[in-house]
User: Fold Methenyltetrahydrofolate cyclohydrolase from Acer saccharum.
Amino acid sequence: MRRVAISWQNGLITSIASATKSLHTTKDNHSCKIIMSPPLVSLDLPDIWSSNSNQYDSIPPQKFSNQQIATVIDGKSIAEDIRSSITSEVRRMKESIGKVPGLAVIVVGQRRDSLIYVRNKIKACEETGIKSMMTELPDECAEDEVLSALSNFNEDSSIHGILVQLPLPQHLDEGKILNALSLEKDVDGFHPLNMGNLAMRGREPLFIPCTPKGCIELLIRSGVEIIGKNAVVIGKSNIVGLPTSLLLQRHHATVSIVHALTKNPEQITREADIVITAAGVPNLVRGSWLKPGAVVLDVGTFPVDDPSSESGYRLMGDVYYEEAVELVSAITPVPGGVGPMTIAMLLSNTLDSAKRTYDFH
Ligand code: GUN
Assistant:
């Protein structure tokens, strides 16, 4: 049988004659032939924005007529409240049963952003009384070294959460490594079973990924209604875009996902009551992309050189803030918006995991 499949190449649709694939069952001699178009589950195209709005300083802000003063959602302060409750709970656990939660972090390589994130996570553990351990491996390390570090933490009963900082260097198989993580210690929620349970109605994941959980927490604590609202998630990464869209669906939003190959991202985003953007492209979301009165959460944290700052760089979000702030009803700043919430949710997931282990309520 000859079938025709569709493949996407550089945004063009080309028809190809697909090969057919036979699968045989081992149980009996009858071969069970399943016809599949090979590209059916995976059209492996790079998710890279070719936007000309990837400019840092040079675009003058456009003025919008229907001006409105936006509420700036103070993620830093909300995260501090949550961390303070976690500190009390960790103390109560220590006083009651003589145990504290433990988090292990594995970081491979020297990516500047990863090292900053990891340092902040370890510092946050120290400040809340959570025990932390870190394994740092060189860029060129073998997969077995990562798996061995992971296996040690899987076996360590004082560790209740394990985080493998992503992205990993290209030569490492991220899927294989995340699959090896103990489901009960997957505080990032990236194990396929946790992610699958998040996707399915009536199933409960053991952990919800930290950034999406932080975003929903920000919406709830800011009094933003989610049920029935049009939500647009920009970016479809495993870390943020995908789980955020799943979590918004669980909260009964009508969810659209806009990504690097979307034809009309501006038009679709302008329909949204809630925009959560995680593209990693500074100034991608201009005022013209936003419906007046929308609520905007900016997950982007792109480091750009800034000799005037102490660290030599500053973080830029996906949203052109000066334009958006005149249009929307609420917005998170970068930094000080979603970032601190991600860390607070990691601490919260680690505490929950330890409570589950010790049956401590
Ligand atoms: N890289 C960027 N964000 C995250 C995160 O939340 N968890 C992990 N493991 N890696 C990341």
Residues 209-339 form a domain with the Rossmann fold fold (CATH 3.40.50.720). The chain has three domains: 3-40, 101-188, 209-339. Residues 163-166, 188, 210-211, 239, 342 surround guanine (CB under 6 Å).
